[in-house]
């Protein structure tokens, strides 16, 4: 595994739409392993492949606690339902030092594939629901700053 460079705002790749993952092979597994290591080393809760310069629909996230990890890999994720709303502060490893309040669904249900191509469904609320939405936005070239309703002073 290796830590990869995180692409920062200003790089036009962050505004591009990522392509579907079609091959569930060793190259994908290496990418996911590197993304996992990169996310943890940067202290983030989520990372999309585009943030390490790879335009594929792959995400790693961990909205757990230091005591209890909740590591997940989402390949080709799609939101299948959302309920309610939450207004919370958000940030992004590609926009260091920036944060703002966004409106996100309170509860989100997604379907996605795992690293072997098997389809799964996850339902989340709170931070994890925000994280699902934030990372899926990355796959469509959307940054959280386009959804900020209030700048938060740090
Ligand atoms: Ni982000």
Which homologous superfamily in CATH is the superfamily? Peptide deformylase
Name of the level-1 CATH class: Alpha Beta
Gross morphology is globular
Low-confidence sequence ranges: none
SS class: alpha+beta
Q: What name is given to the CATH topology? A: Peptide Deformylase
**Number of alpha- plus pi-helical segments:** 2
Question: What is bound: which ligands?
Answer: nickel (II) ion
Q: What series of H and E elements makes up the topology?
A: HEEEEEEEHE
Number of strands: 8
In percent terms, what proportion of residues is strand? 25-35%
Features:
8 strands, binds nickel (II) ion, alpha+beta, 2 helices, 154 residues, three-stranded antiparallel sheet, globular
3D structure, described in words:
- The chain has 2 helices and 8 strands; from the N terminus they run H-E-E-E-E-E-E-E-H-E.
- The chain has helices at 26-42, 126-139; strands at residues 46-48, 58-62, 71-83, 86-90, 100-104, 107-113, 119-125, 148-151.
- Strand 6 and strand 7 (119-125) form a beta hairpin.
- The longest helix is centred in the first third of the chain and has 17 residues, at 26-42.
């Amino acid at each position: 595994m290796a830590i990869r460079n995180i692409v920062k705002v200003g790089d036009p790749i962050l505004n591009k739409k990522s392509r579907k993952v079609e091959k569930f092979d060793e190259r994908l597994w290496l990418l996911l392993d590197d993304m996992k290591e990169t996310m943890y080393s940067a202290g983030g809760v989520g990372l999309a492949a585009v943030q390490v310069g790879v335009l594929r629909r792959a995400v790693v996230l961990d909205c757990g606690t230091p005591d209890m990890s909740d590591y997940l890999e989402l390949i080709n994720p799609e939101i299948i339902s959302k309920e309610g709303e939450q207004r919370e502060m958000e940030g992004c490893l590609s926009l260091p030092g920036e944060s703002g309040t966004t409106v996100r669904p309170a509860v989100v249900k997604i379907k996605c594939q795992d690293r072997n191509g098997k389809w799964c469904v996850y339902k989340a609320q709170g931070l994890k629901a925000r994280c699902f939405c934030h990372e899926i936005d990355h796959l469509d070239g959307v940054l959280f700053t386009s959804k900020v309703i209030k700048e938060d002073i740090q």
